[in-house]
Design goal:
homodimer, alpha/beta, Alpha-Beta Plaits, eight-stranded parallel sheet, five-stranded mixed sheet, 20 helices, 41% helix
Chain lengths: 432, 432
């Protein structure tokens, strides 16, 4: 590109109709001139060839992505990670804000993904390492999406659970257990105090646990638990499957008594989720398989909050995400960024309930709550309920006892003196 | 895990019914004991809790993933990339082959992805860095998939193009050009010798270029070009969109004269592609947006050939992938691995035509051909045809002239002496 060509991909906000643009935050490492690299990043993701040969025209003003902000810092030791065939030259680490005209593709998730994390982004000349850090949508773009049908308020109303976290439990053993004993475990969990008993993300419509049979047994167990406890309960059925089976599986599961359904969002595809959202009669829950494959490293890939925003846009009422603790290998700030992406204002799109998960049990609840600073979250133990030494009812009770202690301002160890299930949890799970 | 627990996740091939297992090649970096890390990698992706509390049962024999091979090498300088909250202890780089029982989830792409690149793989204790390097399917699993409907042979028959590469051209300007002049460019490309004129992956059903209008004009232009040249031509329409629009867009595009259709495979979702495959009447072409986000780095993510295999399984007849040259930042061996993944035997699944692309023009064809060692590939210039200084017909002609020279064993520079279009390409594109 000439310096004139490069200048064609820079703009100031005041020059643009910002309602026509997505704003993308990128960090990248480039070899050579950072301005040229940033211009290529814009060109490649929009008008890579902005005129016909021998025709006086220029598609950049309307269709070109534009650099709004650019900061560059030299990296004297070169790229953070080795990349095959990486360009040579002085290396800079850059932060760029890019305005991308959404009229190039419209309010379609696959086309949005192709634009903001596609070939143009990951194959821009001079930029072997790039990470899409965040995305912001103007009101006009958000207006084309329905977002969550129930949202946090709707999920709370369904479960009649207010002013506290929502207590989920992942029924374990997750793989191999036939539907009848599996349903019995869920039933025990509900009796002990779970709001929602859920299928593991690896358990879907399996030959040894067909969804129709499992959801019928769980639906029946749920109604029995509601009668026994006098409060609404949730059975979250994992209907992750090929996209052309989602509607049928939703219908079977819901008819049988599932009152929430789950998709592994990225493996199914966000577009499949958006399709199901138009049909769904119960809250949709997203689980996070595959997202870590492109979001864990600090200098490459796509930040997980981008996918949290896209999942909210697609219509998930509940978003399960990697939470705190060393097991999940996720920085605390990233968990908080994802929780905020669920709850903060987003046009007319309802909030999604964030569920930061990972090896939780009664003893981790207080830290999660204090760190989030809100009760608008879900708590999702697996073994912390279903691996409790006194069984699932006791496991669930230990969680509720922990919450009551937190609410009352009483230390868990003090409360454990009188509450057997909590005491057993502290003894069993606190072991290294 | 105890050492007995760890041993429960190791097996020898002779002990297993291998037809019941996928084989997964992983590389990973772990802190602490590599055997324990590998056992956790199996446990987390299958039976994370393999028995109920106080019930004498063990789901590992049937449902557990098993380590078949494990090699570990100390990494004295620690992990290759920094990871937040990474575990501490002596670091090893490991290579493991894991047998994963596909009966856990069945022949469903979203569930397959959840199992082999989901939470269990990327959140195994002790393993902050892991890469799924390859996947092998037993015949019983492959038998549940249709794979490509046309395959390499069918695409060749459609285009009556044998014993040579298939010549694609990406019509440029890709974004902004209205359908009428866009179709005119395609027409010129066909007259010059393109087999297939294609939409860019960023151009789909856009308000300023509706697919219905574009495909009607291109369909008409294609038929005129066929009459003028006497040979079949292909118009490849990009129908990337929300999954519930794919069938309708396919039908509109095909009725209007598109005789191949393209999806951005990962943004749409492989399951959406598999759904379309059941309906499609023309070859399906995959483009690669987003795949680089998790496949570029050597020590983390998922190797791109895994997605090449999954795209072939989903039913893509043609797979466009990052090709050779510094622009694509892809090691030569990786391009070759992806090409082989398209062409090598895979049960009864037909081969897909590999199209390694990236900044190609007449002068890069010989290297691509020599490096691949086969004519079973597609060649897909964009600017190399539509940025040719004499226009698209000359751009396409320059590619065909280059191929004729290669076939005849004549150096391009020698052939350029008599062929104007090739000479102009060499002068224009060879400039730095």
């Amino acid at each position: 590109m000439t310096s004139d060509d490069i200048a064609g991909f820079f703009a100031r906000r005041a020059e643009l109709d910002l309602d026509a643009y997505l704003e993308l935050d990128f960090t990248f490492e480039c070899a050579g001139d950072p301005r040229s690299a940033a211009a290529h990043l814009c060109s490649e993701q929009s008008t890579a060839q902005w005129k016909r040969v021998d025709v006086a025209e220029d598609y950049r003003p309307r269709f070109g992505a534009k650099v709004l902000e650019l900061e560059a810092t030299p990296l004297p030791h070169g790229f953070s990670y080795p990349v095959a065939n990486a360009p040579t030259g002085g290396v800079h680490r850059c932060r760029a804000v890019i305005a991308h005209p959404h009229g190039n593709f419209g309010a379609r998730l696959p086309n949005l993904m192709s634009a903001v994390m596609g070939e143009g982004v990951f194959f821009a000349p001079g930029i072997p390492l790039v990470r899409l850090e965040d995305i912001r949508f103007p009101a006009s773009y958000l207006a084309s999406f329905d977002g969550p049908q129930f949202g946090v308020t709707g999920v709370r109303r369904l479960l009649q659970a207010f002013d506290r976290p929502i207590f989920f439990g992942v029924i374990k053993p997750n793989i191999g257990l036939p539907p009848a004993p599996f349903a019995e475990l869920g039933h025990e969990g509900w009796l002990g105090g779970l709001d929602v008993a859920k299928d593991d993300e690896m358990l879907a419509d399996a030959p040894w646990s067909p969804l129709a049979e499992r959801s019928a047994l769980l639906g029946d167990a749920r109604r029995r638990a509601e009668q026994a406890t006098g409060v609404p309960k949730g059975y979250l059925a994992n209907i992750t499957d090929e996209v052309d089976r989602l509607v049928a599986l939703h219908d079977v599961a819901v008819a049988n008594g599932a009152n929430l359904v789950m998709l592994n969002a990225l493996p199914v595809g966000l577009s499949g989720a958006r399709m199901l959202r138009r049909h769904a009669r119960v809250p949709l829950v997203a689980h996070f398989p595959f997202i870590a494959a492109f979001s864990r490293l600090g200098a490459y890939g796509v930040h997980s909050r981008v996918f949290t925003r896209l999942q909210r846009l697609a219509g998930f009422d509940v978003i399960i995400m990697p939470g705190f603790g060393s097991r999940m290998m996720t920085p605390e700030h990233e968990v908080l960024e994802n929780v905020r992406a669920c709850l903060e204002p987003m046009g007319d799109i309802r909030p999604s309930l964030p569920v930061p998960g990972g090896s939780d049990w009664a003893g981790t609840l207080e830290t999660v709550y204090r760190t989030l600073g809100t009760t608008d979250f879900g708590f999702v133990p697996g073994r912390g309920v279903f691996g409790h030494p006194m069984g699932p009812a006791a496991g669930a009770a230990s969680i509720r006892q922990a919450w009551d202690a937190i609410r009352d301002g009483v230390p868990l160890t003090e409360r454990a003196a009188t509450q057997t299930e909590l005491r057993a949890a502290l003894a069993h799970f606190r072991a290294p």
